[in-house]
Amino acid sequence: MKKGYTVRSDFADEFITKDIHSKTYEHVEKVNDYIQMNTIHVLSDENELGKAKGDYVSIESQSINDRIAREYMIEALYESLIDMQMKMNLEPHKILVVGLGNRFITSDALGPRVASNVLVTSHLYRLQSTKKWKGTKNVAVLQPGVMGQTGLETFTIIKSVAEAFEPDLIVAIDALATRNIARINRVVQINNTGIQPGSGVGNHRHALSYETLKVPLIAIGVATVTSIGAILTEALENSGIDSKELFEHFQETTRLELVVTPKSMDDELKHLVYVVSQGLNRFLHPDFVNL
């Protein structure tokens, strides 16, 4: 293992140092009996979090198996998407939803499975009067798969479809990696800065963002995996001992980049898909009474 290994995380709030005021980002935390929300506005390209300039919202619940907690998460996700849209000064009517990942690998199947539960209306808009579908938006869905399935860069597929469909907004959903074991299958992040397909398993592909696609983009990600390195780091930090020398030993003898996911992944993925797809459907079709 190379020297200088650092634990990677896709979540902006995992890099916040408590009780320290920063000039490069603003942070607001809200907590109730069911969920915890962290809203981060990164003000500068150069910042302590190492994240792109923009907005990040995390919605976390340790009670994902509780129906009431899931409903709170859905409402928070919906409201956060509305707020993100307003901050981006958008009123999108034509939206492309992209479910990233491999549906045949449970820890990477979130994107495709959420996409399968989104109400698609684009074909109806083409065939009939938009008045008939009052309360909905013109929504198309894409599940581009992964390079191992298609032989093509995910970015290439999405860009080609976006150029043909010409959406006002792209919403991309993907599985992400956390550095905190307790957050696996417990936290959703929304951002308007972009996403890298495959980032959850360290297989970075071409970034999806406004800069690369020339279309405003909102990314939704859920923590479904962590790494051996993250688990080891957390255990050593919690031990309260000087772990530098020990950690350097593990760097030489252990594959710290290996990705792991809990055995409860199958059951909890159903809850995560429900939360994200319901929150997204409310955002896409807020006034459609039959949704």
Describe it:
Keywords: Hydrolase, Protease, Zymogen. Pfam families: Peptidase_A25. This is GPR endopeptidase. InterPro entries: Pept_HybD-like_dom_sf, Peptidase_A25. There is one protein chain. Helix content is 33%, strand content 20%. With 291 residues, it is α/β, with parallel strands linked by helices. It has one domain (12-284): 3-Layer(aba) Sandwich (Rossmann fold), CATH 3.40.50. Strands 1, 2, 3, 4, 5, 6, 7, 8 and 9 form a nine-stranded mixed β-sheet that branches. A hairpin with a 4-residue loop joins strand 1 and strand 2 (36-42). The longest helix has 21 residues, at 67-87. The chain starts with 24 loop residues before the first strand and ends in a 7-residue tail after the last helix. The relative contact order is 0.18.
Notable traits:
33% helix, single chain, alpha/beta
Low-confidence spans: pLDDT under 50, at least 5 residues?
A: none
Total domains:
1
Helix count equals: 9
How many strands, what sense, and barrel or not for the largest sheet? Answer: 9 strands, mixed
Which structural class matches the secondary elements? alpha/beta
Q: Enter the CATH topology name.
A: Rossmann fold
Q: Identify the CATH architecture.
A: 3-Layer(aba) Sandwich
Protein name: GPR endopeptidase
EC number: 3.4.24.78
GO molecular function, one term: peptidase activity
Pfam families: Peptidase_A25
